[in-house]
């Protein structure tokens, strides 16, 4: 019997599912999505995980019900990170994977992240639009027998082994590291990693902050990218006398770093650090980066004899670029880091481990390692402008600067380069926002002047 057609499902976005609880996303909609996912992919086995939000357990149960109606074996991860779903989908040879998560969205939101077999991303042009259409129409095939839930036992241990394969534990020197899970899903997974590190003799001491998962988020939504959320980690790093600090978002597919002084490390410099780490192991390797702030990364890669490749911003584009080029690593300034040997997927656990090894090998503070890079290529950080007419604002900036530019790139928004500085201006995909990034070659004052001038044009 066919389910009734429903109004357009506004929770479907370009690369994932996100919506307000209630009319936009509820158990009935989640069940339809699970059923449609199975039928569009022709799936027989699907990995399912969830974050710690209060609504995630019921939504995951509804997704599982929809999957089982299509005869699917649901490989249940329970509370887990998005990257654990990515790993398990490939490790278990499943036909797809779903994590119920709203990551860093407000409390009244939830959503889902999805992949195909091989942990390949699903976007509007690779299946998400078809899943939406089927979920809306309710034109499902006849229910199939055989659907069941199977605990995905042993998967976390295998995941930990894969993550730790990225570091040489013997190279680690004594370090004290402050970790802030933000009461999200990271805590239990981190503890599993820490236990194996300790058993292997790693001389690391961890100070834990807001570590236990708590879907009410008593210390605020875990989104360390927001400046107002950074002081709590910064203060804890200093108070603990830590060598550096790590903070994660809700589903820990992003991690954010702080040096021993508590200073937040902008994402573009972390991309350079990780590029350096991989090129030391694999000379000549390809490194993918997003096009917003590029000069530091390009310089690091060139010095190490690698090849830098620009990709459009967004996980589907970065993952595709890694798969198409064979690049060993890809990074975005928004703290998404992608690894060829991790199914070309992003991880929030691999980056801080690589930084711990890099600090150990160089035997100098993280702040000192970064000081030279930040002085050589200062940047503004991403600045958001809310405007009534995005296209008109971009046109004003273009008219003022394009004629004098030495290079123009439209990989993602408008990038114009000049002899000593460069900017990228791109529109948000979801809001009436313009996002500006300015960088220079060693001239902080130039960055400040350019930001002021472009801001005046944007209005």
Summarize the model shown:
The protein folds into 4 domains: about 15-155, Alpha-D-Glucose-1,6-Bisphosphate, Chain A, domain 3 (3-Layer(aba) Sandwich); about 175-260, Alpha-D-Glucose-1,6-Bisphosphate, subunit A, domain 3 (Alpha-D-Glucose-1,6-Bisphosphate, Chain A, domain 3), CATH 3.40.120.10; about 265-370, 3-Layer(aba) Sandwich (Alpha-D-Glucose-1,6-Bisphosphate, Chain A, domain 3), CATH 3.40.120; about 385-459, TATA-Binding Protein.
Strand order of the largest sheet: 1-5-4-2-3-6
The portion of residues forming beta strands comes to: 15-25%
The main pleated sheet reads as: 6 strands, mixed
CATH C-level name of the largest domain: Alpha Beta
Helical segment count: 14
Task: Tell me the number of strands.
Answer: 20
Question: Termini, distance in Å?
Answer: 56 Å
Low-confidence stretches at least 5 residues in length (pLDDT < 50)? Answer: none
Shape: globular
Write out the CATH superfamily name of the largest domain.
Alpha-D-Glucose-1,6-Bisphosphate, subunit A, domain 3
Helical amount: 25-40%
**Secondary-structure arrangement, i.e. CATH architecture of the largest domain:** 3-Layer(aba) Sandwich
Mean pLDDT, to the nearest integer, reads 96
SSE-based structural type: alpha/beta
Total domain count? 4
Q: CATH topology of the largest domain, which one?
A: Alpha-D-Glucose-1,6-Bisphosphate, Chain A, domain 3
- Cα-atom radius of gyration: 22 Å
